[in-house]
Amino acid sequence: MELVYIKTYGCQMNVHETEKMYASFASRDIGKAERAEDADIIILNTCCVREGAETRVIGNLGLVKKLKENKRGLIVAVCGCMTQQRAVAEKLHKRCPFVNVITGTYKLPQLPDMVERVKNGEKFILDLDKDERVPCGVNAAMRTDKVSAFVNIMYGCDNFCTYCIVPYVKGHERSRRSADIIREVTELVERGYKEITLLGQNVNSYNDGETDFVKLLDELSLIPGDHWIKFMTSHPKDLSDDVIRLIAERPRLAKYIHLPLQSGSDRILALMNRKYDMAAYMHKIEFIRKLMPDAGLSSDIIVGFPTETEEDHLLTEKAVKDIGYNNLFTFIYSKRTGTPAATMDGQVPEEIKKERISRLIDLQADIASARAAACVGKTCRVLCDGREGKKLKGKTSADRVIVFDGDAAVGEFADVLVTSSKNSKLYGKAVK
Ligand code: SAH
Ligand code: SF4
User: Fold this and answer.
1) How would you classify residue 412: left for phi > 0, otherwise alpha for psi between -120 and 50, otherwise beta?
2) Which of 142, 258, 344, 390 is 20 to 30 Å from 213 at the Cα level?
3) Is the CB of 300 inside a 6 Å radius of any atom of ligand 1?
4) Which strand (E) or helix (H) includes residue 360?
5) What is the CATH number of domain 3-127?
6) How far apart are alpha carbons 243 and 252 in whole angstroms?
7) Which residue ranges does the chain devote to CATH 3.80.30.20?
8) What is 148-372's CATH superfamily?
9) Ligand 1 atom closest to residue 260's alpha carbon, by position in its atom list
């Protein structure tokens, strides 16, 4: 049997795209290779949100070239966000002529056909055409995880934050039909999945013409079964009070919200085109905490956006301190060609960005430790998702990692008393 190996870069959305690609190859009797060395087809599913991911792709292509030198028929394809940019795709073709197929984000379902064409003698295929049709029906995906599953609810983004390349490489916002999503989630629950994460760049603007996000969540939360539903990402300008109320009300909606702040400075937020200010953001946080005092909150922060001063950065530190996230994803601003911020005056020197991010990481480590320590003595519902040594490992509804003693099986829920914490991690024991 022929085997395909797909290397994924970037976010959970890409991880899920890869799961779907494996399924489309499997339907042609092409299996999944665990290692690139074993594969007849190697695909790099790329990301370009930050420069680091692009650099890794180029580095890995060097290794793929060596494999191809030793295996004549090896077919190599590069797809995803990075190569959806035409100039990048053309440069890649010049630099790496051994790559057989270059496509972007729109034609992933057609990859097996393109590979077939190469087998039939075509030397090189470049297909960056935009196809904004939304797939109908249940997404076939080869999921490796047996407990957690991702489900796309929408594609693309219309927000055009000034630093971000996503709208240029993923196209306009478009929502899957709610009936398809409900069917997919129902099937996953019936197959035993316990954690379903709905994916979209801005899930709050989901709308298939009849159903908006709150209605979709309402319907999904009524699917019978013992499972949690999570979603990401929420844009603070669109997260409605109705959604927050529904999360508080419905046991199957996990008490966890990822709400990227990006900066604590109103001036920088305006330059980023985020369309909210700190007052509006804090208002949402207060409402979440009022209804769900133990809810888990996490966020993304970009340090060193053009013109960011020390005062702006201190406002971000203050916001992070005041809000007290469980978890923070911090990024150094990375210039993306074609975005408005890339040509703004006042680009911040690399050393300053590095110094600011390291202060922010230290600050968040202290906050996360304190928040974890505050959980000691509480009993939480935990979804067991693996093992750590002899102990069980899992996640709380607020998305905290917990290591515990007990006899739950992977994929089962347990009530766990938190007995201690170390850094952001909780430790505990299952209670009967
Ligand atoms: N749609 C989501 C996530 C998009 S990308 C949202 O709006 O939050 C994930 C994160 O990458 C963003 O939240 C942002 O913090 C970061 N990011 C995006 N572009 C970036 C850039 N040019 N430099 C550094 N970080 C960036
Ligand atoms: Fe990028 Fe902003 Fe869209 Fe998120 S909402 S994907 S950060 S443009």
Assistant:
1) beta
2) 142
3) yes
4) helix 350-373
5) 3.40.50.12160
6) 14
7) 148-372
8) tm_1862 like domain (3.80.30.20)
9) 8
In CATH, which superfamily holds the domain spanning 379-430? Nucleic acid-binding proteins (2.40.50.140)
> Annotated binding residue at 375?
no
Report the separation in Å between the CA atom of 235 and the middle of ligand 2, taken as the mean of its atom positions: 8
The pTM assigned to this predicted structure is: 0.95
How far away, in angstroms, is 127 Cα from ligand 2 center?
25
Tokens found for residue 156:
């693309």
How far, in Å, from the CA of 401 to the mean position of ligand 1?
24
Tell me the C-alpha to C-alpha distance, in Å, between residue 273 and each of 200, 397, 428.
19, 32, 43
Q: Per residue of the chain (432 residues), give pLDDT as tens.
A: 999 999 999 989 999 999 999 999 999 999 999 999 999 999 999 999 999 888 999 999 999 999 999 998 999 999 999 999 999 999 999 999 999 999 999 999 999 999 999 999 999 999 999 999 998 888 899 998 999 999 999 999 999 999 999 999 999 999 999 999 999 999 999 999 999 999 999 999 999 999 999 999 999 999 999 999 999 999 999 999 999 999 999 999 999 999 999 999 999 999 999 999 999 999 999 999 999 999 999 999 999 999 999 999 999 999 999 999 999 999 999 999 999 999 999 999 999 999 999 999 999 999 999 999 999 999 999 999 999 999 999 999 999 999 999 999 999 999 999 999 999 999 999 997
All CATH 2.40.50.140 domain ranges of the chain, comma separated, are: 379-430
Q: Where in the chain is the domain with CATH 3.40.50.12160?
A: 3-127
What is the number of the ligand 1 atom nearest to the C-alpha of 164?
19
Ligand 2 center–CA 42 separation, angstroms: 29
Q: Ligand 2 pocket, 167 CB below 6 A?
A: yes
Task: Tell whether ligand 2 has an atom less than 6 A from the beta carbon of residue 166.
Answer: yes
Instruction: Report the C-alpha gap between 305 and 261 in whole angstroms.
Output: 13
Using a 6 Å cutoff on CB, does residue 64 contact ligand 1?
no
Q: Is 81 annotated as a binding residue?
A: yes
Residue with tokens 């979440």: 288
* Ligand 1 contacts CB of residue 233 (under 6 A): yes
Give the list of residues 6+ apart from residue 239 with CB closer than 8 angstroms, or none.
204, 257, 259, 284
Ligand 1 touching residue 166 (CB < 6 A): yes
- Is 47 known as a binding-site position? yes
The closest residue, in CA terms, to atom 4 on ligand 2 is: 201
Query: DSSP string covering 251-280, please?
Result: TTB-SEEE---B-S-HHHHHHTT----HHH
